[in-house]
Amino acid sequence: MNERILKLKENMEKRIVGKGEVIDRIIIALLAEGHVLLEDVPGVGKTTLAKALADSVSLSFARVQCTPDTMPSDITGISVYDKEKGTFSVMPGPVMSNIVLADELNRTSPKTQSALLEVMEEHRVTIDGTSYPVPEPFMVLGTQNPSEMAGTYPLPESQLDRFMMKLSGAIPK
To answer: Where in the sequence is the domain holding 164, given as residue range(s)?
Structure first.
């Protein structure tokens, strides 16, 4: 294994103990420019895993807590009118980070879930008709609660297809 990859794994294992296989898969997805869906109950370290990845490779990190009232613009960004300048300026959303954690993705509305589709596939986001590239590398780590939990919306096949792999019940407590 490449020395850099081994160092990355070692760094992550300092924060996520005993889950070398999960870390291996996350690293594989990063190298293959893929996205990962993590399915598990809340509070078992999924955010720590995503943050450990970003920190270990010195990449920007953003976390979106998906709730029923999360709007698409909360993920993508929005144009805001600057009264003094008389122009609109773009306020980029969290998808303008290298590693994006979409936490509890299946708790937000299907419309907001779909806001990730373009950026996951195209590595671009459109705000008010203008397309902006996201930083490279770019990876979405989506988390979802088990579907039997109350308040979840199933992820549509079109969204599931954007994830290179799905890891279920794999994160340590």
So the answer is: 3-168
